[in-house]
Specification:
Aspartate Aminotransferase, domain 1, 7-stranded mixed β-sheet, alpha/beta, about 40% helix, 13 helices, Aspartate Aminotransferase, domain 2, 2 domains, about 400 residues
Length: about 400
């Protein structure tokens, strides 16, 4: 077997199961799971209908590039959302969810030859796929801590100068998982300048881009920033997904867009990778990308939950309101995130994810230590009930004068 598999870390949810082993949660309380970023709002009926109507396509092998209709729907959505005109033939690809594509992209983008560029940079805390993708591509991950004192930004001055010429790929996540931080135009300006100077490719994970709190004021995306700065799409690849936007995590449907030259190489890789999207899923995806009404309603529900929950938790947990996405990234009393999560599960039957499980020790610190990630993915009533239980648990741990 590939020896690089031995380098992979246990997935955060495996570690969570191990943390809870032997714990019997309070039997008098119903379980509420806010640990995983799985949307639980109902899937819109029109997407289900389109999936069923597309079942006739199961009689045909799909092509890796996807249908013209699907690529056009993605390009049209990008024009509405980001104000950019993408060529659907050369700058857009459908993918089987952003997770699959983020992993696969490193296999195509990393130069793992003996004298190649063998470093992949990612934020820390981070989505664990970035690390696994780098390791299995034969690269060395470099984790750039995003810390509260730095506004949860990636501080590029912390990258050693002699490392830049070894970097093939930089992952960024905006809105960020788990912090909800959105990259500003100044952040993009700095990153693009570094990419132009050193020649690495940027993989911009934007799967949370459609979960924000002020209608009509979406978070800045990489495609918009690149256009505003007049640099084109050079060495920029953007990843997005219908999972969060349209409440279809089981559909496994997303998109990749960007630099036509890089996309051509990625399509070649994907042709061998065997990652063509089912025709029925393509039909449902076209319907989803073409509609915004359900996305607006989705955002309204998340905004309602944050407005209800944050005041309930502000006196017992330390956190900033996220710029976007559906996570609260909160510092816990006592500083032991794993112990807090275990105790919360035992006493209140609420599951959250320890922040240290989403990070690695880097520069002498685990930047997730002392935090928990709370995913407000359940319904409004369940999230309010969970917040009450979290407040009760946190209050019991907080010394009172």
């Amino acid at each position: 077997m590939n020896p690089r598999l031995e380098q992979l870390h246990p997935y955060p949810f495996q570690k969570l199961r191990e943390l809870f082993a032997g714990v019997t949660p309070n039997p008098g309380l119903s379980p509420i799971n806010l640990s995983i970023g799985e949307p639980r709002h109902p899937t819109p009926q029109f997407i289900k209908d389109a999936l069923i109507a597309g079942l006739g396509g199961l009689a045909n092998y799909p092509i890796t590039q996807g249908s013209d209709a699907l690529r056009q729907s993605i390009a049209d959505w990008a024009a509405r959302r980001y104000g950019v005109q993408l060529d659907p033939a050369t700058e857009v690809l459908p993918v089987n969810g952003s997770r699959e594509a983020l992993f696969a992209f490193a296999q195509a983008a990393v130069d793992s030859s003996r004298h190649g560029r063998r470093t992949v940079v990612s934020p820390n805390p981070f989505y664990q796929i970035y690390e696994g993708a780098a390791l299995l591509a034969g690269a060395r991950p470099f984790f750039l801590n995003t810390l509260p004192e730095n506004g949860f930004r990636m501080d590029w001055s912390r990258v050693p100068e002699d490392l830049w010429e070894t970097i093939s790929l930089v992952y960024v996540c905006s809105p960020g998982n788990p912090t909800g931080k959105v990259m500003s135009l100044a952040d993009w300006t700095e990153l693009f300048a570094l990419s132009d100077r050193h020649g690495f490719v940027i993989a911009a994970d934007e799967c949370y881009s459609e979960i924000y709190f002020v209608e009509g004021a979406p978070p800045l995306g990489a495609l918009t920033a690149s256009q505003q700065l007049g640099r084109g799409l050079r060495n920029l690849i953007v990843f997005n997904s219908l999972s969060k936007r349209s409440n279809v995590p089981g559909l496994r449907s997303g998109m990749v867009a960007g630099d036509a030259g890089v996309m051509k190489k990625f399509l070649l890789y994907r042709t061998y990778h065997g990652s063509a999207m089912s025709p029925a899923v393509q039909a449902a995806s076209v319907a989803a990308w073409n509609d915004e009404a359900h996305v607006i309603e989705n955002r309204r529900q998340y905004a309602e939950k944050f407005a209800a929950v944050m005041p309930m938790l502000k006196d017992v947990l330390q956190f900033d309101a996220p710029d976007a996405a559906f996570y609260l990234w909160a510092r816990v009393p006592g500083g032991d995130d794993a112990a807090f999560a275990r105790g919360l599960y035992e006493k209140q039957h609420v599951t959250v994810l320890p922040g240290s499980y989403l990070a690695r020790d880097a520069a002498g610190v685990n930047p997730g230590k002392g935090f928990v990630r709370i995913a407000l993915v359940d319904g409004l009533e369940a999230c309010i009930e969970a917040a009450q239980r979290i407040a009760t648990h946190a209050s019991a741990l907080t010394p009172h004068a």
